[in-house]
Amino acid sequence: xxxxxxxxxxxxxxxxxxxxxxxxxxxxxxxxxxxxxxxxxxxxxxxxxxxxxxxxxxxxxxxxxxxxxxxxxxxxxxxxxxxxxxxxxxxxxxxxxxxxxxxxxxxxxxxxxxxxxxxxxxxxxxxxxxxxxxxxxxxxxxxxxxxxxxxxxxxxxxxxxxxxxxxxxxxxxxxxxxxxxxxxxxxxxxxxxxxxxxxxxxxxxxxxxxxxxxxxxxxxxxxxxxxxxxxxxx
Length: 234
Ligand code: G3P
Description:
alpha/beta, 15% strand
């Protein structure tokens, strides 16, 4: 079994989505900015480019690269699907599963978690509610991200607008799973949003538009990373 890189400390996950600012050559540029920030700050930054950029991005940086999705198929006659082994061979170290923009059912989630495990890939499974988070936690993913879809892309941070969702999700998840890392995402824009998410009991955040669409992604990332390493006094 390939040794999976240990993902230490709080996690900062940047979802490139299908933003043109994070496509092709620009995906590599953004990946290099993330790598510089990770090296300067010591924060574990994970990036999730599009399928077609996985290999070129993985070959350009030495930080964890995740796929944005994969299918639960096993090798064989499947057209237009994404095979876990192919994601691994492209250099990825994990995959998002069930992102609200790529939602799948609970049975498929379970199968995808198993396919990730079979292929030495971390599974980062998204959940939109505390109840969904608990159901997903029973399936033993490596990480769970609580993301209310209505806040995604709004700039209204889940950690400020829905603190109860985060605390209840962490509580519900921990009743059935004491190992999975719990993160949150949606609307996270400022370092204060990140710090609040950590104060609410998560071990990291998922971000997209506030970094990918920023005029200065490197500064946006390093400002977030700073509070993950050195929380302010308050
Ligand atoms: O996967 C994280 C993403 O859905 C959050 O989007 O633009 O609100 O940071 P955004």
